Structure to design on (176 residues):
């Protein structure tokens, strides 16, 4: 009996991992939102956020999880952001250290600006967990558009992220 339960749990886990790995989200084009939230930590994320602002698909970009030692001028130089764009449209968040605190930092910024729609930009393999954390943090009236940056993750990256997603789901289900 115990062996059957264990085998069933392993099968559910394996099929869940397979579903996660083959259904990575894609980039979204053409849809407008009030703002774009970019989570630091992966290649192409900031470039995608800047592209969204440049195309007029969002008024402002908030970059969550910026290293506290990075100045706005250094950020602009590193990512080739024009001064005008940096001054009007790019805000840096220095408080977040992980995906959960990214959601909290972004929620505070969105509340201060009274936005009702946001484009969440992160890497495709990170989107499920990031969107889950944001859904648990943001008010329900804020629409979140998932805009994934394509990547070619290796098996260990997918495996680790799947386990983090499961851990986040379990922790979100536990009462405070």
């Amino acid at each position: 009996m115990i062996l059957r339960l264990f085998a069933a749990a392993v099968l559910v886990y394996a099929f869940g991992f397979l579903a996660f790995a083959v259904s990575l989200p894609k980039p979204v084009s053409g849809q407008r939102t009030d703002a774009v939230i970019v989570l630091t930590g992966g290649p192409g994320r900031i470039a995608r956020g800047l592209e969204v602002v440049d195309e007029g698909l969002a008024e402002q970009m908030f970059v969550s999880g910026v290293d506290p030692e990075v100045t706005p001028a250094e950020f602009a130089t590193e990512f080739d952001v024009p001064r005008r764009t940096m001054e009007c449209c790019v805000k840096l968040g220095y408080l977040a250290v992980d995906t959960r605190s990214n959601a909290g930092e972004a929620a505070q910024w969105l509340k201060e600006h009274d936005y009702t729609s946001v484009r969440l930009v992160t890497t495709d393999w990170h989107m499920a967990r990031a969107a889950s954390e944001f859904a648990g943090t943001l008010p329900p009236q804020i629409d979140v558009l998932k805009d994934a940056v394509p990547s070619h993750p290796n098996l260990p990256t997918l495996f680790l992220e799947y386990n983090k997603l499961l851990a986040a789901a379990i922790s979100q289900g536990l009462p405070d």
